[in-house]
Amino acid sequence: MNGLLLVDKPSGITSHDVVDCIRRAAxxxxxxxxxxxxxxxxxxxxxxxxxxxxxxxxxxxxxKVYEGAMRLGVETDSYDxxxxxxxxxxxPELTLEALQNTCNRFVGEILQVPPMVSAVKIGGERLYKxxxxxxxxxxxxxxxxxxxxxxxxxxxxxVFIRVCCTRGTYVRSLCHDAGKLIGCGATxxxxxxxxxxxxxxxxxxxxxxxxxxEAVASRLLPMDSALDLPIVTVxxxxxxxxxxxxxxxxxxxxxxxxxxEGWVQIKLASGRLIALGQAQQxxxxxxxxxxxVLIE
Length: 296
What we know:
five-stranded mixed beta sheet, alpha+beta, ten-stranded mixed beta sheet
């Protein structure tokens, strides 16, 4: 089986637990997810099965959308309610407009310090392992982009939010940092991932619905429509070149190569995705180098 599986992860289990469940149901090992959700978080996990695992790096880099709640007046060591409470303060009178103005300060390209309780590696070890030992490690800020940080409604002490962000952004850190600006502190109270790129949690299936190989196979999405990358279509003569990781020129394509360098999808005229390639400028002009071959 080759393709994508959209799974709605429940709270209380890890992303790896979900992968293990699907592996048992499908009777196959070659399955991976494209972006971890914390155990307490719910929502969309995009799994890659079989040859689709070769697409995972491109799916992992897609923007993600979350909805959740930020609890004011509380700070924890993990920046969410699973952690130890380290401070509690009175919540001041706040308007929706004032809260939104604070959140707006985090929209755009920002430098974000990851939480101590996270899977980020420093010195070859996961931060959460060092946090369990009572350590606090200096963390370098990372450059991320927050495209949206919207206040949906305010029911004191909880602020309901929607965040659209790039890979590697911690919504927990956004809440923690926003709480600092507000003055009373804040922590993430709940989180649900609703989108990964063009994939929506509305199209996902609960974990317990995957009870057999047939149940998995019937819900697989084809690789052909998995990515949002430029497409080049090969002539029949170019198929073997793409299948062996060759260099494709204009004569091998139905249409001219794209004008810009970067990743492209290499497809047959039928629409079948057979490889991912990189458009690159050469002395002879633009060429497509097949890099991730998806057919034998």
